Amino acid sequence: MNFTLTQDQQQIQQLAREFAEKDLLPGVLERDESSEFPLEAFKKLGKTGIYGLPYPTEVGGLGGSYLSYILAVEEISKVDASFGIAFSVDTSLYGGSIMNSSAPEAIKKKFLAPITYGEKIGSFGLTEHTAGSDAAGQRTVATKDGDSYIINGSKCFNTNGPLADYTVIYCLTDPALGTKGMAAFVVEKGTPGFTVGKVENKMGIRSAHVSDMHLDNVRVPAENMIAQPGEGFKLAMKTLDGGRIGVAAQGLGIAKGAFEIARKYMMERQQFGKPICKQQYLAFKMAELQTKIQAAELLLYKAAICKEEGQPYTVPAAMAKMTCTNVAMEVTTEAVQLLGGNGYMKDYHVERMMRDAKITQIYEGTNEIQKLVISGQIFR
Ligand code: CAA
Fold first, then answer.
1. pLDDT range class, residue 2, cuts 50, 70, 90
2. pLDDT higher than 90, residue 338
3. Mean pLDDT of the chain
């Protein structure tokens, strides 16, 4: 086993770290207030090709490793978890849907290459008001009409929804068959009848844009069908396995970001005539948190490596997602406590990180769903 990152991986990590410090940190508190997405910064990072990092060059990606992509999401999320999820959904949920699909290579290239360099943005439309944890409870329907399909229905909680040029819509071509009748289509922004609905006002990740998407007699060419009827549910599940590794990276980034703020604060903050890190109770708390962060990191990097080496990664992804996001919640909550009254104030960032951490335990499969996936494998 090798615990050393390759030179390429270290370079990506460094690039993402510098970008986060220089382009995301200034203004992150203001964006949390205003819920404004940093579109210019998103496009700027895109020029490096990072959003297509893990995908093969033949379909317009950069041909890098999944671990490199994960390291980048982690670095970004240390500073700005809203940007982290926009990146992760673009790459692993939208890009993953295209890559994992059985679509012809030309179609893959058509819909993947433009997101690699941030020229276009992608989103993932699976969840509906009747289909959250029970992803099979879909009501959106696609009906064949000549060389096209007509789609009707609604999606909710679409991260990047209002920004997206391309959205993968999972829907039923034969509702009587349930998941066996599920397909998936790429629907382009501006297609008549495809509209952005309610934009959510959220507790955390406030500058990520999340909305309902409505489909009212949306005509989509049959060539945009990336999963044939019957293949859609499996495509969604496989894609979510990769997405969950991205959310785990987001969670780990939040945890590491909050830990570092607490560490520096504890070395400076004087109480009872000494820095508070000299209080053994508090220092031991940090020792426990750092150990949990490093354990979570091992699960995360293992899941990413399993994926890139073609080993089964459903369970490693679920374990990494559950562990990293629980650690994110614990570390951020403790960081607020360690910073005391200051921790509760917005200027110190950790209260925002605590609010951002909460959603990581919920989206891309709640941590209860991750336990379902893990226990299902134990008792096969
Ligand atoms: N990979 C490939 N195929 C899979 C799979 C996987 N990981 N998991 C299941 N399947 C296949 C099964 O093998 C089965 O195939 P057969 O019919 O051929 O046997 C089929 O899919 C159905 O499987 P299940 O019976 O296990 O399906 P289920 O209805 O019981 O659901 C579930 C299983 C794990 C609970 C699933 O519904 C699930 O993951 N729910 C959570 C959904 C979720 O994560 N939503 C998040 C949406 S995105 C988001 O959060 C917003 C955002 O923008 C960030």
1. confident
2. yes
3. 98
Nearest Cα residue to atom 13 of ligand 1? 234
The set of protein residues with a Cβ atom below 6 angstroms from ligand 1 is 89, 124, 126-127, 133-136, 157-159, 179, 233-234, 237-238, 240-241, 314, 363-365, 369, 372-373
- Residue 32 CA, distance from chain mean position: 18
* Residue 54, phi then psi, degrees to nearest 5: -85, 5
CA–CA separation, 125 and 73 (whole Å)? 21
Cβ atoms of 38 and 45 closer than 8 Å: no
Full-model pTM: 0.98
Cα dihedral 231, 232, 235, 241 sign:
negative
- Per-residue pLDDT tens over the stretch 246-284: 999 999 999 999 999 999 999 999 999 999 999 999 999
Of 321, 335, 319, 312, which Cα lies nearest the Cα of 363?
321
- Given this model, what pLDDT does residue 151 score? 98
Closest by CA to 66, choosing from 233, 287, 329, 249, is: 249
Which residue type occupies 123? S
**Is the pLDDT at 1 greater than 90, yes or no?**
no
With H, G, I as helix, E, B as strand and everything else as coil, classify residue 125. strand
Q: Which of 74, 75, 297, 364 is catalytic?
A: 364
Q: Tokens standing for 164?
A: 């997206």
Return the axis-axis angle of helices 314-338 and 280-308, rounded to nearest 10°. 160
CA nearest neighbour of 55 among 4, 117, 3: 117
